[in-house]
Amino acid sequence: MIEPLKPPGKILLSEQQIQERIAQLGQQITKDYTNSVPLLVGVLKGAFVYMADLARAIDLPVEFDFMAVSSYGNATKTSGVVRIVKDLDIDLSGRDVIVVEDIIDSGLTLSYLRKNLESRGPASLEICALLLRSGRQPNELGLKYVGFEIPPDFVVGYGLDVAERYRNLPDLWSYDESSE
Ligand code: IMP
Ligand code: MG
Asked: Three-state DSSP class for 179?
């Protein structure tokens, strides 16, 4: 059987909408971090596509590191347990750190990450999330940069997966879970 490229569901954010918003975020970060060399910390795997585009929209010298945390496994609902699967290589002390996240859902992954990374003594720590599930308060979560607020639907594409599929789609799709 030939495996389908596209998921069941519909496009929620087009490639063009995503790229336009990332250009704005990049300009904002460029302004906010003048005279600094920010360290972008990408949260694998979901953020890898976003991180690549965001970094190229920032007009400053930047450095990269990645960490991997796991809270979902192969499910579409959070397990409630966050663990570090791959840690950073670069020392955070004195650095201006920008955590690059694909999506903030419950905020559980974010609050765990923030606590963990702040204990390593960065000069500053901000979050740049592409997506925020609607109903979550960016201020309460301490989110400085947010790309889009999205409805409750599970989403795939643009780095995000269900069971490791669909990460390479340039648009963001809402995934029809009733198809499973
Ligand atoms: P939180 O801990 O509930 O905020 O979940 C955040 C993490 O869950 C993200 O970094 C994603 O990897 C994953 N996640 C949450 N919602 C979705 C979704 O709709 N599609 C794909 N992954 C998701
Ligand atoms: Mg995931």
From this structure: helix
Q: What share of the chain is helix, strand, coil (3-state, %, to 5)?
A: 25, 30, 45
pTM above 0.85, yes or no: yes
Choose the residue to mutate in 13, 45, 71 for probing ligand 1, maximizing ligand atoms within 8 Å of C-beta: 71
Residue 145 CA, ligand 2 centroid: distance in Å: 20
Whether 53 is in the pocket of ligand 1, judged by its Cβ within 6 Å, is no
Q: Which atom of ligand 1 is nearest to the CA of 78?
A: 3
66 CB near ligand 1 (under 6 Å): no
Can you give the pLDDT of all 180 residues of the chain as single tens digits?
Answer: 788 899 999 999 999 999 999 999 999 999 999 999 999 999 999 999 999 999 999 999 999 999 999 875 555 666 667 889 999 999 999 999 999 999 999 888 898 999 999 999 999 999 999 999 988 777 778 899 999 999 999 999 999 999 999 999 999 999 998 887
Class of domain 10-148: alpha beta
Name the packing angle between helices 48-56 and 15-32 (round to 10°): 60
